[in-house]
Specification:
heterodimer; A: 574 residues; mainly alpha; two-stranded antiparallel sheet; two-stranded antiparallel ribbon; 21 helices; 4 strands; globular; B: mainly alpha; 5% strand; elongated
Chain lengths: 574, 84
Amino acid sequence: MSVLTWTYIIVGITFAIYIGIAIWSRAGSTKEFYVAEGQVSPLANGLATAADWMSAASFLGMAGAISFMGRDGGVFLMGWTGGYVLLALLLAPYLRKFGKFTVPDFVGDRYYSRAAREIAVVCAIFISFTYVAGQMRGVGVVFSRFLEVDINLGVLIGMGIVFFYATLGGMKGITYTQVAQYCVLIFAFLVPAIFISMMMADNPIPQIGFAKILPKLDGLSQELGFAQYTSGKKSIGDVFFITMALMVGTAGLPHVIIRFFTVPKVSDARKSAGWALFFIAILYTTAPAVAAFARYNLMKVVTNTEYSETPNWFKKWETAGLIAWKDKNGDGRIQYHQGAPFEGAPTFNDESRGNFGERNVANTVTSNNNELYVDKDIMVLANPEIAQLPNWIIALVAAGGLAAALSTAAGLLLVISSAVSHDLVKKSFKPDMTEQEELRWARAASGGAVIVAGYFGINPPDFVASVVAFAFGLAASSFFPIIFLGIFSKRMNKEGAIAGMVSGIVFTTAYIVYFKFVSPEMNNSAHWWFGISPEGIGSLGMILNFLVSIGVASVTPAPPQEVQDIVEDIRIPV
Amino acid sequence: MNQEQKDAYWKENLKIIMFLMFFWALVSFGFSIVLVDTLDQYTFMGFKLGFWFAQQGSIFVFVILIISYIFLMRRLDKKFNLDV
């Protein structure tokens, strides 16, 4: 059977499962809609958290990025797992004891302030929209590449599915769909990795097998003029700050935090954090192996190969515009070296073909000897084809990518819908509305959020790629410090928290906007403060938030006694 | 539970957190970032040691840390009769 037939079958089966779960787990109350009645087992919540967390970026993008970064790729691996240690030890158990529905709930009650709650609502909505646009785009890309439908139609199908189970089932529907989606995505990630590891390293465990390829990869990289794969290129300081920002940002992301509201007890919150990281670690320790194998395979296959002799996948991705070749020395062979082959992403002049049948690149050519452009995002999708794995595995990877994107999108949409219906409408405007009214608001908000997310998926703003760093920076500089202080300091008051949040957000936003949008030409280490790139600036924003809130709190009155009692209470598990 | 017990429980909780956070910082910021080039002089299962910590080892240690936290807190909860 062809890849296309396999893809229709596998994607069709998985979608049928997701819809079946949605019908089975309709939500009837707000407690079911927001936190699945608080009755999810720690194991199921761990699985759901892992799927919630691992997005299109983790599944499709991360191994590709590591492939081109070498050792520095560790910033993603450590940043996006180390945050769970912070979450498990510093936040999750206490927030579960607090026992409300949303992150702004905690901020508003702990800091006895409507202003603090509303700042938190705006941050939660902004962070979640930033993130969800990328997921919808991911769905569209997988559909267009594997099911050969239009990218926009792909986004619409994805919207339809998410709309169905998120709006109908709320947190309950999302949780059990995410459990199924984790199983699909982890199977889809591991199977090709194990096959490739057996082929290239004679070892079925990729985590061990890729040791064998690294010396060869280092050698080949140097031969072609690249830096050694196992060496670092970024400065120690920058790696330090990026890792910190990603860790703290992970712990401060609202769609991850709210998953811990769904388990019955505090001790279950601890257990499910353990399960979650365990399930995440399975993918995150496999990804660097996939990255190294893919890098080696790519270099081996293309280097000095005649264009006419290149395998099928090469031409397919060239057609998709994600691979491009400019024959600078006119010998008809691909030269792959360090540096960009031409300026920017490829644009093609398709009226005629090049001398060897390749697509004509219209960009300004650079003076180095590299002739090949490879988009890093294709590495995971192309890897099974590069390694010549059977068709059903290639189809499986498509289903896995969709599972990763849909599960994360659903979790984010729930944050948006609960922030609107619970924190904004109920707490700020209509405190006396009934349970059924609030549930209708929640469903309407969730439906509205799907439509907005879909719009951004179809018309991606240019800034989507650069704002992912923004989501983490913002989570790190706004939520993490004030939630942490809200638990660990009884003295922290509303003046401190508001001042801290505002200064953290304003500083981080200003730095990122300046280097990414106002003066992108200045975005290099010579101009960065303390050599910290915009990706890592959330760490400094977090430190600023801590300093300002502690400073302001020390010169303003202590919080009222009943708030101090809340803090006492959340520190004790029962 | 009286105030004295609450304070004692919280103090032990903080000790457990600080003990585990030390290892969290050591393997990530220590071994994988600041000391990475030094550790790369040694090999471990065929990997350069610093590289291994940056891309594999630190993640394994993170999982072990959360599991240890679950067990240490369970023991603490038992000691204070909070394990219901």
